[in-house]
């Protein structure tokens, strides 16, 4: 089957399976198999495509595209992605942007990422602020193993430890976190069911981290509708200059403060 035929067939099957972006996903899968990018597919439409069926069947079963591809882009990095950790989301890039802005002007900042997962935030920060000392902690040994593989593959020197904010130590310039903040998986996209539940479902972590962190600056990713509540929590914990930043979709997504 050539790429043109493969694309048409894959798009139809993914649409029937309820995938939100069937054309784009079909393009990603076929580009991956041809060793090119989606934008590079145009001149390759007559090329033979082999090995599509197992990947397509996984995506049809609503496994996240990033797990099927085994890698995903985040900021300037390509990270290995699998079911050991959450797929890095585009909105988390806004969190990294605010973290970088907050760390500007601090020499060799000491940065802690609570809930490091695949390593996305910690590794992007180290990549874009090479002078920073970046530590990532997580309660999941599986996620930490993936973060370590990513750090080695990318040659980025971040310290990764099992634990939470309470055991992470003191004296941070900046604590950054995208903690689990969803009430329940019920009614959400089936893709979320493939990701570790402890990476998604959780409540009260923003407050726990804000209270326990010995940090001059904190910056959090929050769920839709949570920004005002988390901003109030930061104020109650003694943080000033509390600011909310929307993500690229216009949803209030990042809350920060300083003390
Ligand atoms: C939403 S994921 C974020 C992963 C990654 N930082 C990212 O943004 O893609 C949350 C992570 O926090 C971890 N986690 C959950 N509870 C935690 C806690 N109390 N302390 C530290 N990490 C925790 C989970 O294992 C998961 O890896």
Shape: elongated
Give the beta-strand count: 9
**Number of DSSP helical runs:** 10
Q: Give the helix/strand class.
A: alpha/beta
Strand order of the largest sheet: 5-4-3-6-7-9-8
Q: Helical content, roughly?
A: 25-40%
- Mean pLDDT score: 97
Q: How is the main sheet built?
A: 7 strands, mixed
List keywords for this structure.
two-stranded antiparallel ribbon, alpha/beta, seven-stranded mixed beta sheet, elongated, 10 helices, binds S-adenosylmethionine, 259 residues
What does this structure look like?
- The protein has 259 residues and is of the alpha/beta class.
- Helices cover 38% and strands 19% of the residues.
- It has ten helices and nine strands.
- A seven-stranded mixed β-sheet has the order 5-4-3-6-7-9-8, with helices on both faces. It has a two-stranded antiparallel ribbon with strand order 1-2.
- Bound molecules: S-adenosylmethionine.
- S-adenosylmethionine (SAM) binds next to helix 6, strand 4 and helix 8.
């Amino acid at each position: 089957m050539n790429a043109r035929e493969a694309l048409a067939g894959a798009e139809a099957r993914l649409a029937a399976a309820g995938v939100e972006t069937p054309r784009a996903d079909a393009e990603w899968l076929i580009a991956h198999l041809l060793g090119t990018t989606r934008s590079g597919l145009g001149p390759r439409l007559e090329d033979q495509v082999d090995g599509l069926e197992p990947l397509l069947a996984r995506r049809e079963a609503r496994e996240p595209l990033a797990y099927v591809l085994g890698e995903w882009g985040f900021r300037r990095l390509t990270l290995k992605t699998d079911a050991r950790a959450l797929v890095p989301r585009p909105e988390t890039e806004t969190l990294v942007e605010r973290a970088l802005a907050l760390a500007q002007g601090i020499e060799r900042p000491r940065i802690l990422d609570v809930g490091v997962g695949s390593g996305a935030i910690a590794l992007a920060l180290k990549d874009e602020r090479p002078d920073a000392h970046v530590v990532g902690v997580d309660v999941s040994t599986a996620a930490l193993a993936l973060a370590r593989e990513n750090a080695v593959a990318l040659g980025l020197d971040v310290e990764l430890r099992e634990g939470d904010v309470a055991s992470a130590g003191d004296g941070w310039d900046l604590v950054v976190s995208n903690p689990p903040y969803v009430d329940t998986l019920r009614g959400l996209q089936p893709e979320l069911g493939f990701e570790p539940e402890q990476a998604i479902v959780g409540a009260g972590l923003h407050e726990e981290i804000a209270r326990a962190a010995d940090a001059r600056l904190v910056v959090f990713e929050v769920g839709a509708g949570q920004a005002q509540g988390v901003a109030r929590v930061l104020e109650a914990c003694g943080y000033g200059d509390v600011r909310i930043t929307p993500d690229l979709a216009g949803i209030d997504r990042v809350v920060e403060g300083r003390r």
